[in-house]
Amino acid sequence: NQLHEDDVVASELRATYPQAIQTLIDALRAEERTDRSISNIRSALTCFKEAVTELDTQIALSEDNIPPFTKTVKSVMTDHPVKRVAKQCGIPSDMLYGWLNGKWPRPSSVKYIRRLENFFALERDSLTTLAGFKGNEREEPRVGEAHSIAYREALSARSKSRYWLVTRENSPLGNQWTALLEYKTAAV
User: Fold this and answer.
1) pLDDT, tens digit, for every residue of 60-82?
2) Residues 19, 13: contact at Cβ < 8 Å?
3) The model scores a pTM over 0.85
4) What are phi and psi of 109, to 5 degrees?
5) Is 85 helix (H, G, I), strand (E, B) or coil?
6) Cβ distance 86 to 76 under 8 Å?
7) Residues 6+ apart with CB under 8 A from 122
């Protein structure tokens, strides 16, 4: 992102984080970095992103300002009736009113936050991270394919066979097995 150690980082870890991280991943792929290296760098940057979000929230709460989550929800909801948006999103209207009045969402309300993101076509987890929830609630997209393990492949192939021992048509073992089944399942 053409940033140096002395530069002030602002929107790269806030509003434009998804675009900045995608630009970084594209640049790392152009440098022919391994998929593992890209995943490690992305994971390390996630910690910084979460720290910036937490710091912004603490500063806003200590100065009696509006926290970033509430500010973003208010900016998205301008000129939209709350009850109508709540009904169309499937969010309880009391919950949405609470968020607009500065109430902090609970971890159980992540699905409602994601519905609001989808309704307004926001970047996935943009509101969720502002609410202080880590992106670990869902599976991160993997970069690259997992390598196969020979033992697991062989075990998978073996477990697909219903019968381990396949005998010929009139074998003594097959006849004994049929006789045993008839004996065990006979009415008398």
Assistant:
1) 667 666 777 888 888 888 888 88
2) no
3) no
4) -95, 15
5) helix
6) no
7) 76, 116
